[in-house]
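Because discrete structure vocabularies remain unfamiliar, we reproduce here a specimen of the format, pairing a chain with its fold in token form:
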Amino acid sequence: MSIISISNLSKAYDDRTNALDEVNLEVNKGEIIALLGPNGAGKTTLISTICGLLTHDTGRIKVDGYDTITEYRKTRRLIGLVPQEIMLEPFETVYDTVRFTRGLFGYPENRKFLEDVLQQLSLWDKRNQMIKELSGGMKRRVMIAKALSHNPKILFLDEPTAGVDVELRRDMWNLVDLLKSNGVTILLTTHYIEEAEMMADRVALIDKGKVIFVENKDALMTRMSKKELTIKFKSPITKIPGSLSNYKLVISKDRLSLMYVYDTKASRTGITRLMRDIADTGFVLEDLETSQSSLEDIFVSLIRK
């Protein structure tokens, strides 16, 4: 069941840059979807439009059945946003900052709930400290606490771990797992491809304002992830013998290796037959190496196409 439904969404800026171009996207309730794309692809614009920070030119967005334009108060109460930039009042305390944000959504103070949020983010011991006294990583935690202060159904994380330490990144991953188990829908943009590979249920690739594809992460990895066998020889190879032409081998730049790409899911990889045919050529082997494509490799290859 979709909790966010986007239809034919377009947005152009004053310089006529098409930040979003006929975007269609369905986000399922309770899933984690990673929005991937190069800088300037339209990821932040898409998030800002769904959250009501920008108005779109054409198209329609519905959040849990409510229109983001005509029923904006209802949609905004359902959403929590952690933006890229840290925007906090330096002379407020941690607790008052989070409490004030909850009040902006029309909710009364709930000390037990806010304590739980701050505990999850290792902020409870710093609840009485002023923001200006915190490190950059702690300020990022406060931004996350603010986004969770009104118990949203949907959480947007726009590059949440950019420039933060390893400990916060690990805590973020743990928090995302907890939120998902509680039924929160999460949209994540990140340049750390391993985050998408680790956490996302589905991956959406955005480039030049268009959604190129949306696919289940595991299915994508299965469909497109290949293994590469590098066969190293003691002497340079000038050309691939005719007996090996059916294997679609590639000669390395130093001409000392042949690369063979194969599908790990196939019933037969062809490696045994390949090695037998190589032995018949008289080439002297030195070493063998295998490497597995990552989501980052897949992402880069799709962008190039």
The mean pLDDT is 87. The radius of gyration is 25 Å.
